[in-house]
Amino acid sequence: MEADRLDAALTVTRTLDESGAVVMGGEKPDPATLLAGYRRLVSARRLNEQAGALVRQGRLAVYPSSRGQEACQVACASVLADGDWLFPTYRDTAAIAARGVDPVDVLTMLRGDWHCGYDPVAHKVAPQATPLATQLPHAVGVAHAARLRGEDTVVMALCGDGATSEGDFHEACNFAAVFRAPVVFLVQNNKYAISVPLARQSVAPSLAAKAIGYGMPGVRVDGNDLAALEKVLGDAVARARAGGGPTLVEADTYRLDAHTNADDATRYRTDDEVAGWARRDPLVRVRAYLTEAGVLDDAVEQEITDAAEKMAAAVRAGLGAEAPADPEEMFAHVYATPTAQLAEQRVQLRAELEEA
To answer: 6-39: per-residue pLDDT in tens?
Structure first.
C-alpha cells in the first residue's frame, strides 16, 4: 500500500502529450467534453491577457497572471458540484471566473475597491487570499463542518508550491487527514515562490509525496494536461464526497508571465526555460487533439474566440467605469453593532461631507 502511494506521488499522470496525442496506455478523452473545457481555457487565457492590459493602463493596481496554468484553473472549477466550495489564492482569478463569478467582480479586489467584489456564500467561492496558505485551514474548517452536518459538500483548496513551506499548509493537511475532511488540496507547482526556485524550498522527491506523512493519498499530474487534470481531480472529489477523506494533488505546471507586474522574472530565470514551457502550452495540446478528432474547425474556433472577446470587452467596460466612492463605508463592516465612538465619528464625518 505504501509503495503504491509513493509511486502515485512520484509518477506524473498524463493523458495528452505536448503535441495533443494520447499517451501510450492513456484513455482517449471524450471530444465533446474536452471541447467544453477548451472553451473555458480560451476564456481563461483571454482574461489573463485582458487583466494584464488593464494593469498597464492603470485600471488595475496589480495582477498575478496564471498564463500557462489555465488548465489547472479550469479543471479545479469544472469538477465541482454547485454546492461545493472553492478556496482560491490571489493567482486564481481565472478559476473563480470558471466557477461562474463575473470576471469584473473577481478583479475588483485587485483594483482596490473592496477586499472581495462578490458574495462568497452565493457563489460558494471564498475571498481570494493574498497571504500564503492562510485560506487552507479555513477550507478544511468548511469541509469538516459540512461533514459534521451530514452534507455531501466537497472543498477544493488551491495553493502554490511556495505555500507548502508555510505552517498553515501543515496544519490544514494534518487536520484534514486526522478528521477525514472532504477536501482536495490542489498545489499548482509553477516552480517558483516569486523568485525562489522549488529546489530552494523543498528536497522532498515531490510535493505530492508530502501527503504520505499526513496519511492521505498524494497524486502528481501534468498541470498543463486538461484531460488528465479533470480525471485526477474528479476522482479526488468523488473520493472525498464518498467519505474517503482528503487528497493532495500536485499539478506540474509553470507560470509563463512574471510573478506580478511588479516583478522582473529575467533576474531569476532564463528565456530558454520559459520557451521550453511555452511549448507545453495547455491550449495548444487540447486544440491539436480536438482538431484531429474533427470537432474543432475554423468556424468553431472563431465562435469560441468571439465569445472570449465578448467577455474581455465586458471586463474593459466594467473596470473602465469609475467606482463610486462612499466615505461612510469605512464604518459599515467594523462591528455588527457599532461602538459609541464609531457612531460619533460617523456623525462627524457626515457633517463634514455636508459642509464640503
So the answer is: 888 899 999 999 999 999 988 999 999 999 999 9
Whether residue 315 sits in one domain with residue 302: yes
Among all residues, which ones are annotated catalytic?
A: 255, 259, 268
| pLDDT tens sequence across 214-264 | 999 999 999 999 999 999 999 999 999 999 999 999 999 999 999 999 999
Residue 1 is predicted with a pLDDT of: 60
The verdict on 73 and 160 lying in the same domain is yes
Full domain range(s) for residue 92: 2-325
The one-letter amino acid code at 188 reads: Q
Do 312 and 333 belong to one domain?
no
Work out how many domains the chain is built from and give that number.
2
Q: How far apart are CA 193 and CA 190, in angstroms?
A: 8
User: What is the C-alpha separation between 301 and 287, in angstroms, rounded?
Assistant: 9
- Give the separation between CA 194 and CA 192, rounded to whole angstroms: 5
* Neighbouring C-beta atoms of residue 164, cutoff 10 Å: 25
Residues of the chain below pLDDT 50: none
How far apart are alpha carbons 221 and 223 in whole angstroms?
Answer: 6
Mark whether 351 and 302 lie in a shared domain: no
pLDDT at 327: 87
Look up residue 51 and give its amino acid.
A
Residue type, 22: V
* Same domain flag for 337 and 308: no
> Looking at the structure, do residues 212 and 336 belong to the same domain, yes or no?
no
Q: Which pTM value belongs to this model?
A: 0.93
